[in-house]
Amino acid sequence: QGALQLIDGHRERVRSLLSSYAFNRPKDIVREYAQRLDELARVQDMKARHLFEQAHRAHESLHKRLSGLGSESILKRGYAIVRRGESVITRAEHLRHEDEATIQFQDGSVTAKVQ
I want to staple 106 with a disulfide (CB 3.0 to 4.6 A). Which of 1, 14, 60, 75 is the partner? Predict the structure, then answer.
């Protein structure tokens, strides 16, 4: 019986060690790091979504501003585009007497002769 008691004693010692804080601490550390990693991933995802939404809003804003600068928008505001051939005329001095020019309005264009 001495040997059986010795074995039982060792068996109990092993059980005690397996359930001890020191033996289980590495598991706790891994679990804590896993929780921290999950939290960091969640925060990173949230920040990435926020940055994407900001970039999307900035893109939409710039798109609207650029659309307002297009020739169609300018024509809708009552301005006209004057061309000689394919060239846009930006100054009166670029046209001479008897030159033909095309004047583009919102609803169409007309040909005019400089006098």
Answer: 75
